[in-house]
């Protein structure tokens, strides 16, 4: 009798493929794909008070991510509709009225829901109705989004900031999901939970971070749970692929990448590198200049046969190495590999990373979270905005991890204009006017670095009143890469820019 009454009050399930079934403005659909796989609509009435309604939908095989956005009417009359989910075999979770959307994948899920495989078959959205007044009719809509292929993941429904500009962050750190440790109440060293790292990053004033635990993305579930609480700090999916022959960060992905290399060749590295690239992730080689051995097993990059354009970035300054050597330009840093790749024509972005393993390290120490900082010009503060910004090359490294230093390199040649990461076409004897803009450094030296060699004649001393320095450079008709460094009055490297590329016109 009860089920007949529920049906008599019209639980209509309109299953349709396409966006027309629900107003696009109802949900932040851009975060999960503009077109829902299914749109479920129905009506809750007074007869459903204190009852549970099962709203079925069929999931095809091969789904790797499921997202449901839910909304309902009647809230102005104190209607309340709770939400949960069953897969074909088991209960997957319950968020009650606390959330209007949920996401599940094999690796992580919205708080209140269980991560795990997404089996094909009949799923059921479970709706509980703790309150609906007599005479009230409350329409509901659930949009179901799916992904059949792994790809870039975000823990937020949209950009944290829609404005284009410079954003500061740290792209290399570890939590207790691998070997990150920090102090317990007693002072004992324990596995450091993700929230401790996020609190330190927020206190440092960073805009984005990537927690890159070794070969795992177990941190992803905590990051999804914590992203709403850190709504000014973009949490970026990442991991450090850790092999016997070198380490590299992969940003943007959380699905499994097979790190099990048995020899130091690209044929072995391609098992994870090509997969990461195909899925939209970004690969960056870490601490390439560190010798591998018992002090740092597998840390130096010793993989042979790396083809052109296999990686998008190199960690030029590593905070752990900085703590040991005291200098950002020590040979144990990543400059040598970065410049070899640039010399052969790869457009590879130089970045920094603290490699922090202890969220409690004082901010004024090397390897603290945010030391060094990578500063990226982004179209918006989002995961896609970060990846695109890193690939664009309009990036610089702030060795001290300040909040206000700026380095910009631009060039003008006739009608051509370029900034870091872009290209000029120049014939022999063509002149280009390079402008180095520095802010946040009271005094020091800015210089151009051409194909890895600084040009003493082009050193410019600046001060706070004159942050912009023009340099005229004349082409020999060959390909070159040209970037800018900034040093303090004692010669210590403060800011490291990415190249503008010159090709034969």
Keywords:
505 residues, mainly beta, Jelly Rolls, TIM Barrel, Immunoglobulin-like, twelve-stranded mixed β-sheet, five-stranded mixed β-sheet, disordered N terminus
Question: What can you see in these coordinates?
Answer:
This protein has helices at 2-8, 194-203, 219-226, 266-278, 319-325, 335-343, 383-392, and strands at residues 38-45, 52-59, 65-72, 80-86, 91-96, 101-105, 121-131, 137-147, 165-170, 181-183, 189-191, 208-210, 234-236, 238-243, 246-251, 282-285, 313-318, 349-353, 373-378, 395-398, 406-413, 416-419, 423-426, 431-439, 443-450, 453-454, 460-463, 468-474, 480-487, 493-497, 500-504. With 505 residues, the protein is mainly beta. The protein has three domains: 2-147, Jelly Rolls (Sandwich); 152-403, TIM Barrel, CATH 3.20.20; 405-505, Immunoglobulins (Immunoglobulin-like). The strands form six sheets. Strands 9, 12, 13, 19, 20, 23, 25, 26, 27, 29, 30 and 31 form a twelve-stranded mixed sheet that branches. A five-stranded mixed sheet has the order 14-15-16-17-18. A four-stranded antiparallel sheet has the order 1-8-3-6, with no helix packed on it. The longest helix has 13 residues, at 266-278. Residues 1-33 have low confidence and may be disordered.
The biggest beta sheet is recorded as: 12 strands, mixed
Per CATH, the superfamily of the largest domain is Metal-dependent hydrolases
The global form is elongated
Helical fraction: 10-25%
Q: What structural category characterises the helix and strand content?
A: mainly beta
The average pLDDT score comes to 92
Radius of gyration from the alpha-carbon trace, in angstroms = 26 Å
| N- and C-termini, Cα separation | 82 Å
Tally of DSSP helical segments: 7
Number of domains: 3
| Low-pLDDT stretches | 1-33
Assign the CATH topology of the largest domain.
TIM Barrel
At CATH's second level, what is the architecture of the largest domain? Alpha-Beta Barrel
Compute the number of strand runs: 31
**DSSP strand (E) fraction?**
35-45%
The CATH first-level class of the largest domain comes to Alpha Beta
